[in-house]
Task: inverse folding
């Protein structure tokens, strides 16, 4: 699993399998006479990530955070977790804010990389049975995340 | 997207899964291939292809994606390699050998193109935290925020939120351009990947192995500079997926 230190948001993240997924699937050489098997599930997974990004939920979250801003006085002391506050910052503080910052595509990443050690096969069922499983993640945003394990138990 | 096709050939006797092509003389990768199959090399005319028996069906399972990657990683550690896309099959060993002969010149020159190089992939995602600064700086947004407070409501919130989301993404895209301008000179070539409202930077860099550390340091420096707007991630060294081209124009991307 990628480890997030508590102090800084700005160090580059180490890559996960998700980060190279499009390279493995869409780049690389294909020679004419060879056959490439079509992989349907993956496309759906990607599209799903895209849709959620532009969701009303995201907008409302922005608006809510903005409505808590002091517009008249320039108080720059506020930290990111406070601004993106609510349950996230109360329960897991900085790490939570960072997760918000890393945001939605990471949810998909998580689906594909349940653990960086011995991860078994859950990308399988995810990609094959497509849209259903990925749906849930929005509502999970605010929780510390025990939910990842669910995938393995299925 | 890419070619769909003939699932019927998968699992037929003789069908091979192809990982990549390297110059003759590399050692056989020890990592298990897709579906756990043993990987072997087919050598022809100065080139060799890493293959394994094709599984009954190829699916983008986590384990198999990792296997594909691991086999290529072993080859890449030994020298230049032309990585195939995931899930490429050849009907049998003979067609593959024939292809290696026919395309020899092209494949050799492609190998030269990536020799001594690795692919580094840099992605940048929007950091929403900067929106507070943005509201203070941007008159339009501030006005919108005030108006939303005066006349709150669902619609108003959605409108405000959308404007903020767009503003934040715009900031991130600006930062992405800066990052790109700083990193590109360190690379031999670059290849842009798909971007969207959330992931605004996705670019692969063909970097000389000798420059890998320098490149990483540059990414880290950029990450610090733009961290309030853009979260950077770097993956690599990778086989040069983004810097190989198929022999005929109709095949590749």
Result:
């Amino acid at each position: 699993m990628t480890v997030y230190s508590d102090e800084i948001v700005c160090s580059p993240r180490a890559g996960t399998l998700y980060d190279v997924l499009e390279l493995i699937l869409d780049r690389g050489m294909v020679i004419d006479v060879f056959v490439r098997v079509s992989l349907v599930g993956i496309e759906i997974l990607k599209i799903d990530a895209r849709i959620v990004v532009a969701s009303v939920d995201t907008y409302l979250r922005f608006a809510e955070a903005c409505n808590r801003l002091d517009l008249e006085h320039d108080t720059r002391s506020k930290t990111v977790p406070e601004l993106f506050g609510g349950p996230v910052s109360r329960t897991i503080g900085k790490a939570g804010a960072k997760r918000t910052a890393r945001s939605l595509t990471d949810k998909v990443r998580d689906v594909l990389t349940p653990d960086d050690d011995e991860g078994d096969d859950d990308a399988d069922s995810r990609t094959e049975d497509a849209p259903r499983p990925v749906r849930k993640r929005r509502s999970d945003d605010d929780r510390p995340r025990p939910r990842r394990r669910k995938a393995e138990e299925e | 997207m890419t070619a769909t096709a003939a699932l019927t050939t998968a699992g037929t006797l003789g069908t091979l899964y192809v990982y990549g092509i390297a110059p003759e003389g590399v050692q056989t990768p020890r990592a298990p291939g897709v579906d756990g199959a043993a990987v072997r090399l087919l050598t022809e005319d100065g080139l060799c292809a890493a293959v394994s028996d094709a599984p009954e069906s190829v699916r983008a399972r986590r384990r198999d994606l990792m296997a594909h990657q691991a086999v290529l990683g072993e080859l890449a550690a030994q020298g230049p390699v032309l990585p195939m896309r995931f899930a490429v099959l050849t009907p049998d060993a003979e067609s593959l050998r024939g292809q290696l002969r026919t395309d020899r010149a092209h494949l050799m020159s492609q190998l030269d193109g990536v020799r001594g190089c690795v692919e580094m992939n840099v992605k940048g995602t929007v950091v929403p935290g900067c929106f507070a600064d943005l509201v203070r700086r941007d008159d339009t947004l501030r006005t919108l925020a005030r108006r939303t407070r005066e006349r709150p409501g669902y619609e108003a919130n959605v409108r405000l939120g959308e404007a903020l989301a767009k503003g934040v993404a715009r900031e991130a895209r600006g930062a992405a351009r800066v990052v790109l301008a700083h990193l590109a000179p360190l690379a031999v070539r670059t290849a842009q990947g798909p971007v969207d409202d959330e992931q605004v930077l996705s670019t692969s860099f063909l970097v000389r192995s000798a420059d890998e550390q320098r490149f990483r340091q540059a990414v880290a420096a950029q990450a610090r500079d733009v961290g309030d707007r853009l979260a950077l991630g770097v993956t690599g060294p990778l086989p040069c997926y983004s810097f190989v081209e198929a022999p005929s124009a109709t095949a590749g991307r």
